[in-house]
Amino acid sequence: MLPARLKRILAPMVMLLLIALSGCGGGLASDVKVLEKAVASQDWDTVSGLSKKMVQEHPERPEGYYFQGVYYYHQKEWQQAIDNLKKATELAPAYAGKGGDMLADIYIQLGIKLFDQDYQQSLELFKNASEASGDKSTGRRIAGIIMDQVNKKNAGKNFYDLKDYLPLLQAALQYDAANERVLFYTGVACRLRNENEEAVKYFDRLAPGPSSGSLPDRLFYFPSDAYCVAGRNMEYQFLQAGRWPPVPARPAPVILAGGPGPGQ
User: Fold this and answer.
1) Long-range own/partner contacts, residues 247-253 (CB < 8 A, 24 or more apart)
2) Which parts of the chain are TPR repeats (predicted)?
3) Which terminus of the chain has fewer Cβ atoms in its 10 Å neighbourhood, N or C?
4) Confidence band of 70 (pLDDT split at 50, 70, 90)
5) At what angle do helices 95-114 and 119-133 cross, to 10 degrees?
């Protein structure tokens, strides 16, 4: 038990501390509301100034770092956005969901920018994007971006150069395993590298157990040059010869004595 005299001395100090803490909390909540409205109205001067003030006054709280991240994200200052959003998540793991989509988009933008210089680094950034978001739609977006980059690299070249991009195609499938376009291109790339067993695996996933003649119809979904070079002339014949019986020959029309056959 504290002596009565010490209690009398400490009581006002404790009360002042409680009042200060209460005011601080209320001020922080009020600032958050102001920042939310500023973000909605794209008042970036307010977002920048007030979020910096929050970080200075409450460095132990995630809110200021989060809104700093939002500000830098919209200014396309990617690294500062990453640093602040990750700091907010470190202080409060719940902010991983709040800022995850922005982090994912930042990593994707950086990955696209670096693709021509170092696609391996781009793939690492895409992996970071997928982990930050945790959403399947992000994976589908990444797969589409990788395919766009493959097409860009292969623009103006012979379609057979696709074999050089097998690692990229396989990376795309990690993010969107059911994407028919990626499966088709990956199978073609394996076939061009004479990796026939692997090619068969990808084509099986593309069109498991098709009925006779159905696969060419599905290949028309892909770009016409890809279909003409790889589909009609090579892959469909390869599949027919290696996986399914050939389409039965159409019987010749029967010519009856005394007149033309049916349809004549």
Assistant:
1) 247/212, 247/213, 248/212
2) 62-95
3) N
4) very high
5) 160
Interacting residues of 182 by C-beta distance below 8 A, sequence separation 6+: 143, 147, 169, 172, 173, 176
DSSP letter string, 15-34:
HHHHHHHHHHHHHHHHHHHH
pTM, rounded to two decimals: 0.66
Contact 182, 169 (CB under 8 A): yes
* pLDDT interval class at 246 (50, 70, 90): very low
Token reading at 1: 């038990």
- Report, as an integer, the average pLDDT of 106-132: 92
**Cβ neighbours of 261 (radius 10 Å):** 10
Largest interatomic CA distance in the chain? 131
Which residue carries 């074999």 as its tokens? 163
Q: Rounded to an integer, what is the distance from CA 161 to the centroid of its chain?
A: 25
Structure tokens at 214: 């159905």
Residue 18's pLDDT band, with cuts at 50, 70 and 90, is: very low
**Residue 96 in this model has a pLDDT that exceeds 60:** yes
| Tokens read off for 256 | 């009856």
Over the chain, what is the mean pLDDT? 75
Distance CA(33)–CA(53), nearest Å, equals 15
Residue type, 154: N
User: Regarding predicted confidence, which is higher, 213 or 102?
Assistant: 102
Residue 3 has pLDDT above 50, yes or no: no
